[in-house]
Structures are given as C-alpha cells and as structure tokens.
Design brief:
Layout: H1 11-27, H2 34-37, H3 41-69, H4 78-107, H5 121-185, H6 187-216, E1 227-232, E2 235-240, E3 246-250, E4 253-257, E5 263-265, H7 269-274, E6 281-283, E7 288-291, E8 301-302, E9 306-312, E10 318-324, H8 325-335
Antiparallel strand pairs: 1-2, 3-4, 3-7, 4-5, 6-7, 8-9, 9-10
Helix pairs in contact: 1-3, 3-4, 3-5, 4-5
C-alpha cells in the first residue's frame, strides 16, 4: 500500500480544538458555579496551560501522521499503518501528558498523586488522543481508497486507448498492404513516368543555361563612386559618396551626414553640387541635397504643402524633408531619370 501527501486539519482548526479541550478539562468535575470560577485568576492560568498542552498533543499527532505518510514501508498494509498510528500517536502523547502534568503540578507545589489528575483530566486527554488518531486513520484510508480508484480508472482508460490504437494500426497496416500491392502492379507505369520526368528535367536545364546567358548580358546595377574631402574630428577625411545621406549648408559650411558624426567643409552648396553625380544627388531645398540611395518612400508622399521625402539615416532612424509644390515636378523628373 502506497500513500501520498494528505491535507489534515489546518493550524486554525488545531488552535480552536485545543482551546475547546482545555476548557472542558478545566471545568471537568468542578462543583463551583461557572460564574464564580471565571472570577479566579487561577482559572485562566489553568486554561492557558491546558490549551498549550492540548495544542502540543494535537500538533504532534498531525506531524506524526504526516511523517508516517512519507515512509512507504510504514504503509505497506492497513495493519502496519494502524499499529504505527496507535503506537506513536497514542502511547507517546499519553506519556507526554503525564510528564507535563507532573511538572506543572510540582512547579506549583502540589502533590501529583493527590491532585486527581489521573482520575479526572487524564481520561479526557486520552480520549482526545484516541479520537484524533482515529480521525487521521479514517482520512488516510479514505485518501488511499480515492487514489486506488483513480489509478484503476487511469489503467482502464489507458487499456481502452491501447485497444483503440491497436485497431487503428491494424486498419493502417491493411491500407498500406493494399497500396504496396498497387505499387507493385504499377511498377512499369512508374518507370515510364520517371523517364518522362528525366526528359522534362533535361529540357529545363537547357532553358536555365539559356536564361543564364541572357542574364549575363544585362547591364549591371548602377554603383556610386567618388569621395569628398571634408573636415572631421581628427582632421581631413575622405567621405565616400555612398556613405552620405544628405548634405546641408549652415553657417558658411557644408555638413555631410552619414551614420557617424557629421563632417564639414567650407564651401558653397552650389559649388559642391557641381562635383556630385546628378543621378544620385538632388537639391531638394536651397540648403539641402539628398542622396537617392537612402530615399525610403520613393517619389515621396503628397501633402497640401508639397511632397514629403524621407531619408534613412542609421538603423531605425529617418529624417523627413518637405519639398515645395513648385519644385515637386523637378524632383519627380529627377527621381524617374534612368541611369546612364
């Protein structure tokens, strides 16, 4: 017999049960009315001690029951579990009850044998211990019955699925055998089709070779060559045309914007424009020249004020320029200009 983790009484339930038992123990065999008893401070001391004592016993029984659950060899059969529960859950708490009561009474200077503890309080405590252990045993056995029922149900479902899978694979095997018989009877047709496929492949290879020759005669994609000598952070640098996103004239200098920091050159934008290839660069404003390579929205987006042309700067970064309507026709003509 195996077992798994059980959820026994909660901590709050243990505290409440211990309090009820403590009150019963203190009021047992009392001839004084309850209204008079609660006026004595000793009543509350006795209730507190009895509550602590009862809680310790209840907590120990819960801990002991969980400890037994974690050891399979103590749950091999119902008999072994029963004797383990009675031996550890009943005998040990009863001995502890005697020892704690003896210490408590001796601490207050009372004679243990003459106190009547063994004839009045102790039987109630033993009854509580037996009831608690029997309750845990019932919970344990019920849990085991539920677990065995679940295992049986899972085994039944698995067996049923295995039978269904066996039937499915049997039908698939029959279908596969039929397909193999059809394929064996049609071997000559398959061979003929393979020959036809080889002929089609040979014709495709001939067409691919011819297409490759035609593609070799196509003009190459236009490339941008040339450099500008401009002032950088460490001196004069050669900035390739292909790296320039756009040029801007500001404060008597022409600034070239690339993916790095801008470079500058003391010159007029008109003079610099004459040195740039017309196909690649266009003066979109009086102070701005853009590079065709980095235009991301083609001929631009038409707005009320004119065209919006967007330039790609670095990764995920763009800059948009607005082209006046009177210059839109010249820009569109330049953008559609073929490369010579």
């Amino acid at each position: 017999m195996q077992t798994h983790e059980l959820t026994y009484f909660s901590a709050r339930g243990q505290v409440a049960t211990a309090l009820a038992v403590a009150v019963v123990i203190v009021l047992n065999n009392q001839r004084i009315p309850f209204i008079e008893i609660i006026k004595y401070p000793g009543f509350y001391v006795s209730v507190a001690f009895s509550w602590l004592f009862a809680w310790m016993i209840i907590h120990f029984i819960a801990w002991f029951s969980r400890s037994i659950d974690r050891f399979p060899r103590w749950n091999r059969s119902h008999d072994v579990r029963f004797f383990m529960q009675i031996g550890g859950g009943v005998v040990l708490p009863c001995l502890a009850a005697i020892a704690l009561a003896f210490g408590f009474l001796q601490g207050f200077g009372r004679d243990f044998m003459a106190s009547g503890y063994l004839t009045h309080e102790f039987p109630i405590i033993c009854l509580l211990i037996v009831i608690m252990n029997l309750t845990y045993l019932v919970l344990h056995y019920r849990n085991e019955a539920d677990r065995l029922a679940e295992e049986l149900n899972d085994s039944t479902v698995s067996l049923r699925k295995a039978v269904i899978r066996g039937d499915i694979w049997k039908r698939r095997a029959l279908v596969l055998r039929q397909k193999l018989e059809i394929a064996g009877n049609d071997a000559a047709g398959i061979s003929r089709r393979l020959s036809e496929a080889e002929s089609v492949l040979a014709a495709l290879e001939t067409e691919l070779l011819a297409s490759k020759d035609e593609l070799g005669n196509l003009p190459e994609k236009p490339k941008l060559h040339g450099v500008l000598e401009m002032q950088g952070a460490l001196g004069m640098e050669k900035v390739p045309f292909s790296k320039i996103r756009y040029l801007e004239y500001d404060n008597r200098k022409v600034w070239a914007y690339t993916t790095k920091s801008p470079r500058s050159l003391i010159a007029s934008l008109l003079t610099l424009q004459e040195a740039l290839p017309d196909y690649w660069f266009f003066r979109i404003r009086r102070t701005i020249i853009i590079n065709r390579m980095y235009i991301v929205n083609g001929p631009g987006i038409k707005r009320k004020r004119g065209l919006e042309v967007t330039i790609r700067l670095a990764e995920n970064t763009t800059k948009t320029f607005t082209l006046h309507r009177k210059n839109a026709a010249a820009y569109l003509e330049w953008f559609s200009m073929p490369h010579e």
